[in-house]
Design a protein that fits this description.
The protein is an alpha/beta fold and about 500 residues long. The chain contains 19 helices and 16 strands. Helix content is about 55%, strand content about 15%. An 8-stranded mixed beta barrel has the order 8-9-11-12-13-14-15-16, surrounded by 6 helices.
């Protein structure tokens, strides 16, 4: 614990000596010399003449460097300086240090529901709790507004298990409810850390960057994730950053556009809609699905830009099919949680529909069940309610994989449940699957909702789903997602087919 005051004293001496080499000191040197002669005569003049070169030599090149490059007093700069002061002391003392970066999960919810001042207060209180769970000599500071960096004072025993236990202790400190304005707020955090000896380089900056990379990985696997730095994280982070840059360029160039997959009525065999699914036509890697590039845009402003691009292309396609006389009742577009948190979303969608002269019922808004189940966000609730009131269809996607209650389904004015593909696979001969589908269909019928089964790949699955009462189907058994021109030909052939896809038998 005595290392910190000693290091600070040495740093202050170094700064004082650095003034000898600074331009400000050289400017006042003649005045200082004249004053010395007036006060003490030739004796003081001689002492000044000898002392200045001596101090100049003692200050040396480090002082010149400090004069040329002022110290970084930002939280990140102070964290790097703290690490740099510790590193030289560890070799002889047999001690080690580590850097932890704590990122708070879902602070956007606090912002949307309680405002920016409440969000800032939550960050301050959570940071105080982190500081209270550490030793007096540990460095703690806020970085990036919604994250906290921790630099541990040197200790003799510091290994992976110790850091994991410490991270868990910090998470427990943060997750206790925070009382604010009569409300109880709950915050969780994800933590990444790097032990000094495991960073790519033995510098404060390298250790902090490694901890940040581990924290980003923890946040992606959160909430409440904990990750230790590993060498491949830096490479993965660089690849994601490069992919994000390429994605931004692709959005500008129009390389990301929808492929359309038909949705078929089991009653009539007619097309009940087409779902727009994002595809990136990469010049090197070919056609990429969302699972290959969406992780690179999560948490960035590119998420909303992607939603805007998909909506524009979907409505453009719908107008084109109308002009060709092809009956496509609606297009479905997926909206992320980030899209739904934008209070301007209903106005933007209304403006786009008016721009293309389309009625709201021609657009189906697809929302993941997990988003609805966890939506305590007033903005999300309001947006979905406005879209439903406008006349847009609301589809609950991947139904059965989340925890949406009946009350939640009614609250969001859901029109149709999209049964997840995991319940559809082998439904033609798996009795348990059939029971699950029957239960979902029965629930939907009691609530006055439609149903659509995803991932239908065989005629036998289609036949069984129809008999179980599922109203619509979608999957590779009918068509894979297709570019707009290919989808146009598919729709034309389907409409002109004499046999089409028939109604299958009587329902149970």
């Amino acid at each position: 614990m005595t290392i910190w005051p000693l290091a600070d004293s040495l740093l202050r001496i170094q700064r004082a000596l650095g003034w000898v080499r600074r331009p400000e000191f050289l400017v006042f040197l003649p005045a200082i010399t004249l004053a010395g002669f007036w006060i003490g005569g030739e004796t003081v003049l001689i002492l000044l003449a000898v002392a200045h070169p001596l101090l100049f030599a003692i200050a040396g090149q480090p002082a010149m460097a400090a004069a040329a490059q002022p110290e970084d007093l930002s939280p990140i700069g102070r964290a790097v300086s703290a690490l740099d002061r510790i590193l030289p002391t560890m070799v002889d003392k047999g001690r080690s240090t580590a850097c932890l970066v704590v990122q708070f999960d879902d602070l956007d919810n606090v912002l949307d529901r309680h405002g920016r001042s409440a969000q800032a207060e939550v960050i301050v209180r959570a940071t105080d709790r982190i500081r209270g769970a550490l030793r007096l000599g540990d460095f703690v500071a806020n970085i990036h507004g919604d994250a906290v960096v921790v630099v541990l004072a040197p200790v003799r025993r510091l290994d992976l298990e110790t850091l994991v236990q410490m991270s868990s202790r910090l998470q427990e400190a943060v997750t206790a409810p925070i009382s604010l304005g009569g409300a109880q707020l709950y915050v969780t955090c994800s933590i990444g850390f790097c032990i000094a000896g495991r960073a790519p380089e033995a510098t404060g900056r390298s250790i902090l960057d490694a901890a940040q990379a581990a924290s980003d990985e923890a946040l992606r696997n959160g909430p409440g994730g904990i990750r230790a730095f590993s060498p491949d994280m830096a490479q993965k982070r660089a690849e994601r950053d490069a992919l994000r840059d390429s994605l931004e360029e692709a959005l500008d160039k129009g390389d990301i556009r929808p492929h359309f997959q038909p949705q078929i009525s089991t009653d009539t065999g007619e097309i009940s809609g087409l779902e727009a699914l994002a595809r990136w036509h990469h010049p090197v890697r070919g056609c990429l699905t969302p699972s290959e590039f969406l992780p690179a845009v999560e948490g960035s402003d590119l998420t909303e830009r992607l939603g805007e691009v998909m909506l524009f292309h979907a409505l453009t396609a719908l107008v084109a099919w109308d002009k060709e006389g092809l009956r496509v009742p609606a297009v479905s577009v997926n909206f992320s949680a980030a899209d739904l948190r934008n209070p301007r979303l209903p106005d933007r969608i209304k403006w786009e529909l008016d721009r293309f002269e389309l009625k709201p019922e021609r657009l189906t808004v697809e929302i993941l069940e997990t988003v609805v189940a966890n939506a305590d966000n007033d903005v999300i609730v309001s947006n979905i309610a406005q879209l439903a009131a406008m006349g847009c269809g609301i589809d609950l996607d991947d139904f059965g994989t989340g925890h949406a209650s009946i009350a939640t389904i009614r609250r969001f004015a859901v029109r149709r449940l999209k049964i997840d593909r995991s319940f559809v696979t082998r439904v033609d001969h798996d009795r348990e699957q059939q029971k699950m589908i029957s239960a979902i269909v029965s629930l939907a019928e009691r609530l006055g909702l439609e149903t659509l089964a995803e991932g239908v790949e065989t005629a036998a699955e289609h036949a069984m789903l129809s008999q179980l009462g599922c109203g619509h189907v979608q999957g590779f058994g009918f068509a894979r997602p297709m570019p707009q021109d290919v989808a146009t030909d598919w729709v034309r052939r389907h409409v002109n087919r004499q046999d089409r896809i028939p109604r299958i038998g009587l329902r149970r």
